[in-house]
Amino acid sequence: MKIIVWVACLLSSAAAYPLVQSRQTEDHAWRAPTATDRRAPCPMLNTLANHGYLPRDGSDISMDVLVAGLKAGVNLGADATKLVGAAALKGSTTGNASTFHLTDLNKHGLIEHDGSLSRADTSSSDNHSFNATIWAQTASHFTESTIGLGTAAKARKDRLTAAKAENPTFNMTDGDVQASLIETALYLNVMSNETGVTAVTAWVQKLFQQERLPIEEGWKRPKGEISVATILGLKVLMSSRQVRTSNI
Ligand code: HEM
Ligand SMILES: *[C@@H]1O[C@H](CO)[C@@H](O)[C@H](O)[C@H]1NC(C)=O
Ligand SMILES: *[C@@H]1O[C@H](CO)[C@@H](O)[C@H](O)[C@H]1NC(C)=O
Ligand SMILES: *[C@@H]1O[C@H](CO)[C@@H](O)[C@H](O)[C@H]1NC(C)=O
Ligand SMILES: *[C@@H]1O[C@H](CO)[C@@H](O)[C@H](O)[C@H]1NC(C)=O
Ligand SMILES: *[C@@H]1O[C@H](CO)[C@@H](O)[C@H](O)[C@H]1NC(C)=O
C-alpha cells in the first residue's frame, strides 16, 4: 500500500515538474515587447507585461486581470490596484468600457502628468516612453547602493524643478504632485530589500531602464501584501520633506 502511494506520488510529481518548470521559465520569463505590443508610461506595468503577469500585448486589460497581475507579480493589494485601475478605465479606447490598453494610459491628465522621473513632458514629441536623458537627471541622485526616503524625495523634487525650468508649458496640479509622490513611494517599497522603505539602487535602475524584474540581481517579490495605507504612509513621510507644488 505504502509503496503504491509512493510510486503514484513519484509519477505525478514527475509529470507535474515540467509544467511548473515551463511556467517559471516560459510564462514569466522577461521578453522585450514586439513592435505591436502596447506599453504605458508606467515602468511597473510595462515590466509586468514584459514578464507575462499582464498580457504581453498590453491590450484589453480588465480590472480583474490588472488586480491579479499586480498581486502575482509584486504583491500589490487589490485595494491599491483598484484605486489607480479605476482611473485607467476612464481612458479606455478598446470599445469595451471594462477594459483598457496600456497605451490608453498615455492620455495626459488621467494619471499621466508632467515632471516624470523618466519621461518627457506632454508637450514633447514622445511623452510616454523611457527617456535616458531625463532618467540621467533623476539617477544622478542615486550615488549610493541604496535609495532612502530623503534621496528619493530630493530626486522627485529636483526633477519637478528641472521640468518647470525647461518647459514653458509645464503644468502640474497639486493632485499630480501627490500622484508623483505615490509613484515614488511605490518603487521604493517594491524595490526595497525587505525594509519597505529603502530601495536597492541597482534594482530600481533595472525597473526603469530595462522594464524588467531584477530577479537575477537578487530581488524577490515582497512577502507582505503592499497596502494603500503603506504607500500613503510613505507619501506623507516624503511630503514632510517639502515636496509640494509651492516648493517647485
Ligand atoms: C506596485 C505597483 C506600481 C509601481 C511600483 C509603479 C511605479 C510607477 C513609477 C515609479 C512611476 C513614475 C514614472 C516616472 O516618473 O518616470 C509610475 C507612473 C505611472 N504609473 Fe505606475 N506603478 C505601479 C502601479 C500602477 C498601476 C496599477 C497603474 C494603473 C493602472 C499605474 C499607472 C501609472 C501611470 C499612468 C504612470 C504615468 C505617470 C507619469 O506621467 O509619470 N501604475 N508608476
Ligand atoms: C468587456 O470586458 C469584460 C471584462 O473582460 C468582459 O467580461 C465582457 O464580456 C466584455 N464585453 C464585451 C461586449 O466584449
Ligand atoms: C528626451 O527628453 C528630452 C528633454 O525633454 C528631449 O529633448 C529629447 O528629445 C528626448 N529624447 C527622446 C529620445 O525622446
Ligand atoms: C504626446 O505624445 C503623443 C504620441 O507621441 C502625441 O500624439 C501627442 O500629441 C503628445 N501630446 C501633446 C500634448 O503634445
Ligand atoms: C493646468 O492643468 C489643469 C488641469 O489639468 C487645468 O485646469 C489648468 O487650467 C491648467 N493650467 C494652465 C496654466 O494651463
Ligand atoms: C539584502 O539584504 C540581505 C540581508 O540583509 C543581504 O544579505 C543582501 O546582500 C541584500 N541584497 C542587496 C542586493 O542589497
TrEMBL record:
InterPro entries in the record, alphabetically? Chloroperoxidase, Chloroperoxidase-like_sf
Assigned keywords, A-Z = Heme, Iron, Metal-binding, Oxidoreductase, Peroxidase, Signal
Residues of the signal peptide: 1-16
The yes or no answer to whether the keyword Signal is present is yes
Residue ranges constituting the Heme haloperoxidase family profile domain according to the UniProt record: 26-233
Any one GO molecular-function label of the UniProt entry = peroxidase activity
Q: Does the keyword Heme apply?
A: yes
The coenzyme or cofactor needed here is: heme b
Q: Name one Pfam family in it.
A: Peroxidase_2
Q: Which PANTHER family match?
A: HEME HALOPEROXIDASE FAMILY PROFILE DOMAIN-CONTAINING PROTEIN-RELATED (PTHR33577:SF19), STERIGMATOCYSTIN BIOSYNTHESIS PEROXIDASE STCC-RELATED (PTHR33577)
Q: Which family does it belong to?
A: Belongs to the chloroperoxidase family.
Protein name in UniProt: Cloroperoxidase
Organism per entry: Karstenula rhodostoma CBS 690.94
